[in-house]
Every structure is written in structure tokens, then in C-alpha cells.
Amino acid sequence: MGHLDHATFGWLTPVLSYVMACMGAALGLRCTVRALAATGRSRRNWLVTAASAIGTGIWTMHFVAMLGFSVRGTGIRYDVPLTILSLLVAMVVVSTGVFAVGYGHDRARALFVGGLTTGLGVASMHYLGMAAVRLHGDVKYDPALVVLSVVIAVVAATAALWAALNIKSPIAVTVASLVMGAAVSSMHYTGMFAVHVDVTPSGGTLPGATAMQFIFPLAVGLGSYLFLTSAFVALSPSAGEREASASAQRLVDSVAAR
């Protein structure tokens, strides 16, 4: 059995991956809060942004953490189509969960469906990403830890969506995103501790791309998207702020008219 190292670069990849998870969660929750206060096309656009932020944050967290993953006795490559598919699955399934909450009339039912769907999406992304790993040997999983990782994903997603439905203040959203980031990271490492590799030494060339060739540039690109979108959302006035601004302008106009 090969020795697995989940933090080849020390604390760098776990901490950085946690930061990415928190960024995605914070942006997603903030956009969901904006969506619930909006109507029509505006609500849909905010929900799309929320889903893309959460999906991107989770995917980036996973593969930034994977940059620190190594197995003694074998190199590691990644199947490019499967890796991209894991990103698309994260986006689509998380979108389904977020829209269930955004348009659900029965909040309890919407939260259950949304949390379950989003959590299963997170888990699907993780294990699709792991299926993309290519190495010299056989990858096996501890079933109990796999189930536990899926449960953590569903609970984390449900808690995050509950926060979006019930928490409005920016400080509370920040705290909720820190908790969600910790939960997503816990899910990832629980799933990784379920992995066992029976290494088969070989001098053959592994198919696929190395993490630095493919994962690192894509993670940097998606991380930049999260940062820029976060800046846009932070600078965009909320519905309450627009109403306050409009009220102030009406007051100024009425004073000037006198």
C-alpha cells in the first residue's frame, strides 16, 4: 500500500483551499440573499451568480487541496475531460439546489430539496474529481468514510442555504461562510482519508495532465473570477440601499422644489 500525503506543501494547500471555499460560500450566500429580495429577471441573475460562485468555490477548494496530494511510489496525473466534467456537475447540481430555494414557496420543503441536491452535487464533484486521478496502482475507498463525507456535504449545504434564507446582515453571512468553508473542507479531507492506494511500480508514462500543467492554471483563473465577482457584488447596492438612496433623492427634490 502506498503512503499518501495530503499536505505535500505543508499547511499551504489546506489553508488556501479553505480560503477558496470560504470565498465561494460568502459570495454565494450574499448573492442568494440579494436574490430573495429581488423579483423577475434580477432574482434569476442573482441565483445564477450564487450557484456559479458556490460551485466554483467548491471545485477550486477541492483541486487546490489536491495540489498537495501525493502517493509514494507513483506520479499523479489528471484526466482532463473528467476534471472539466466535475466542474460542470458542481455548477449544474448546485444551480438546481439554489434555484429550489430561490423559487420554492414552501421554505421547509425547498430547504430540504435544495440542501440534499446541493450536498449530493458537492459529493459528486469530489468523487468525479477523484475518478480523474491517474496513477500506477489501484485506488480503493473505505465505504464508511465515503458515506460520512456525503453526509457532511449534505448537512453543510443545508446549513448554508438555511443561512441564506434566515440571515441578512453581512457580518452574519461572513460567519456562516466561515462555517460552511470549514464544513466543505472537512468533507473533502474525510473523503480523502477514505482513499487507499495499492501502488504497482511501473516505468510507463501516465496519461493525462499534471496538476501544475492543468489544475493550477484553472484554479488560478477560477479564483480570480471569485475575487472579481466578490468585488462587483460588494460594490453593487442592495435593494434596501437603492430604496434608501431613492428616498433621500426624493427628499432633496422636495426641499429644492420649495
Describe the structure.
The structure is a single chain. The chain has 258 residues and is mainly α. It has one domain. The strands form three sheets. A two-stranded antiparallel sheet has the order 1-2. A two-stranded antiparallel sheet has the order 3-4. It starts with a strand and ends with a helix. The model has no long low-confidence stretch (mean pLDDT 81).
Q: Write down the overall mean pLDDT.
A: 81
State the total count of DSSP E strands. 6
Rg measurement, Å: 21 Å
Tell me the fraction of residues in β-strands, as a range.
5-15%
Q: How do the strands of the widest beta sheet line up side by side?
A: 1-2
How much helical structure, as a percent, in the residues? over 70%
Instruction: Give the termini separation.
Output: 85 Å
Structure annotation, total helices? 8
* Unreliable runs: none
Give the structural class: mainly alpha
Main β sheet profile = 2 strands, antiparallel
H-E order: EHHEEHHEEHHEHH
Count of individual domains: 1
Top keywords for this entry?
258 residues; mainly alpha; two-stranded antiparallel ribbon; 6 strands; elongated
Write the layout of secondary structure elements.
Blueprint: E1 4-5, H1 12-36, H2 40-66, E2 70-71, E3 77-78, H3 80-103, H4 107-131, E4 133-134, E5 137-141, H5 143-166, H6 170-193, E6 195-199, H7 211-235, H8 239-257
Antiparallel strand pairs: 1-2, 3-4, 5-6
Would you kindly provide a brief summary of this structure?
This protein is mainly alpha-helical and 258 residues long.
